[in-house]
Design a protein that fits this description.
Elements (H helix, E strand, L loop, with lengths): L1 H6 L11 H15 L6 E2 L2 E2 L6 H13 L5 H6 L2 H19 L5 H17 L1 H6 L6 H20 L4 H19 L2 H16 L6 H14 L4 H9 L1 H17 L3 H4 L7 H9 L3 H11 L8 H19 L12 H14 L2 H29 L12 H7 L13 H16 L8 H22 L1 H8 L2 H11 L9 E4 L4 H10 L3 E4 L9 E7 L10 E7 L8 E8 L3
Parallel strand pairs: 3-4, 3-5
Antiparallel strand pairs: 1-2, 5-7, 6-7
Length: about 550
């Protein structure tokens, strides 16, 4: 069931607005041009992220692009990163919990993996075509290297290797956050653990530095061959986002207490368990590697996030493995009556959600009838806020069969022991998987129709094809990074992104404006088309302006 959960939502839908669309624009550039240095989206350099995941996804496009749509082939690159992450999280758990009896250690290993995969934030981001999957995988590998050095300093070669490889992967996925965090963790460990102040540690650091060298090739080549883009990546998108001087034009500004508000639910259920672990662990156990290492990773990571001028909730993802490691032993200490009550609540909640998904599907799967004629009309009215009830999804035989199988798997999970800590973690993970997978089998066509830009862009291109200017260029005025990449992918066109009206030089302009915004800025232009994505317009619409002829 977990395997189906990992695939459901990973393939079978278009790139969705946000990080996926511009990310796929970069992947598509690498795939079609064969150039690998400067991340480029719709013809323009895009230096927000390092390119490791984009390179991997482009390779997967070459491997699977003949049998899958390119965007699905690119998303498949998530799977090897995730499997690598789970392997190293398992190895870290085995190393940190080695002092426990064998059976208890195995239980802790499985609880750790279940808490990691079942956390609310991970359920979404483990399916998205973004750099985050390589980001938290690199972090997990580096943390394993540190755990190996803490618990088995005689294995300093392996410890240094994995510290360097993991840190390099994180650097090449999303910049300097994780290298900075791990440096702070390392310094704190040197202060708190006297046994680390040894030749083995120095040798491990040397090996880590050597292991990082291959990951420094890209920044060095970028510096040598395209210095302005190196400055954009290093200074504006890394240093500037942290200190704040580039947030004004790059976006994603942090707010006071933003991470205080979002961490409890985003890292649930690992977060409250980790908090209980911190509050109930005796002082004499604080220096135990199984407690100290994940705690330091969380503390140093959260410190940097609080200090950063830029903040988005998925910046927490590199900390998930440490939250799971800190939370796992707590689940073993909870009394049976609490586990029974919690599992009863979880089963009731997830069962209601699965039934709700089935009921929504039953209510909306017949197009062309009024709300009052539908089964469960109140659910159809609820769904109509986000999706179009007029959409016809086509045959869903396979999707329905998969959803039935998932529902039966969920019912079979009721055989798990509600008094057992390991089964408690399983019940939560399987419940999250059941809800997610049911949604992304039964309701995926409607969700994709709503979130994809394909239909809107097809309408735009049909309009452009009727114009005398159809063979001329088109400027994009404040339309963001997402739309141009999708125009290039689906229609082969290219839009020049502009933020100053005076820079417009093409006879056609695609602009993003509020619906009630007057057209006074475009004097001498005529609106030839208006469009928006279904239910996701945010009060805005795209307008195609054509310069009026004299």
């Amino acid at each position: 069931m977990v395997a189906v959960f990992l695939l459901a939502g990973t393939i079978g839908h278009d790139p969705w607005t946000g990080d996926e669309t511009y990310g796929f624009g970069i992947i598509y550039h690498y795939y079609t041009t064969g150039t690998w240095l400067v991340p480029t989206n719709a013809g323009l350099p895009f230096m927000e992220k390092s390119p490791l995941y984009y390179w991997t996804a482009a390779i997967f496009c070459h491997l699977f692009g003949d049998t899958l749509p390119l965007h699905d082939a690119a998303r498949l690159a998530i799977i090897p990163y995730l499997l690598l992450c789970l392997v190293f999280l398992w190895k870290t758990s085995q190393r940190l919990f080695a002092a426990h009896p064998d059976e208890e250690r195995r239980v802790l290993d499985w609880i750790t993996l279940s808490l990691f995969l079942g956390s609310i934030g991970m359920v979404r981001y483990v399916h998205e075509m973004t750099t985050d999957v390589a980001f938290y995988t690199g972090t997990t590998i580096a943390v394993y290297g540190i755990a190996l050095l803490l618990c088995a300093p005689e294995r300093w070669r392996g410890a240094g290797l994995w510290m360097g490889v993991g840190t390099g992967m994180a650097l090449m996925s999303k910049g300097f956050f994780v290298p900075a965090m791990l440096s702070m963790v390392g310094l704190a460990l040197l202060v708190l653990v006297p046994s680390l102040r040894s030749r083995n540690t120095a040798a491990a650091i040397g090996v880590a530095a050597l292991a990082m060298l291959p990951f420094l090739l890209w920044p060095v080549l970028l510096y040598l061959r395209d210095y302005p883009q190196f400055v954009e990546w290093f200074w504006n998108n890394n240093v500037g986002r942290f200190l704040g001087f580039s947030v004004k034009w790059l976006g994603a500004a942090n707010r006071p207490f933003y991470f205080v508000e979002n961490t409890p639910w985003f890292v649930f259920p690992a977060f409250p368990l980790a908090v209980v672990g911190v509050l109930t662990t005796s002082w004499r156990d604080w220096r135990a590697p199984a407690f100290l290492l994940p705690l330091l990773v969380i503390v140093m990571g959260m410190t940097l996030l609080f200090l950063s001028a830029s903040g988005r909730v998925h910046y927490l993802l590199p900390l998930f493995s440490s939250f799971a490691l800190l939370a796992a032993p707590v689940l073993l200490r909870l009394p049976a009556w609490f586990l029974v009550g919690w599992n009863g609540f979880a089963r009731l909640l997830f069962s209601a959600m699965v039934i709700g998904v089935w009921a929504i599907w039953w209510s909306i799967h017949i197009p062309g009838i009024s709300l009052q004629e539908r089964p469960f009309p109140f659910l159809a009215e609820f769904a109509n806020r986000w999706i179009s009830l007029d959409f016809t999804p086509g045959t869903q035989t396979i999707a329905c069969m998969m959803a039935v199988a998932i529902t039966l798997f969920w019912l079979a999970s009721f055989r798990l022991n509600a008094r057992d800590a390991r089964h408690t973690a399983y019940i939560w993970l399987v419940g999250m998987a059941a809800v997610w997978t049911t949604i992304f089998t039964l309701l995926l066509p409607w969700i994709d129709n709503t979130k994809s830009q394909r239909g809107m862009l097809a309408s735009l291109i049909r309009t452009v094809d009727t114009l005398p200017e159809k063979d001329e260029c088109m400027d994009g005025y404040w339309i963001g990074e997402s739309l141009p990449s999708m125009i290039q992918y689906w229609h082969g066109g290219r839009i020049v992104l502009l933020k100053e009206f005076e820079e417009i030089s093409c006879p056609m302009v695609l602009a993003l404006q509020r619906k009630n915004e007057p057209e006074s800025e475009f004097l001498g232009w005529k609106v030839m088309w208006r469009g928006r994505r279904l239910r996701n317009d945010g009060g805005k619409e795209y307008r195609l302006y054509v310069r009026q002829r004299d």
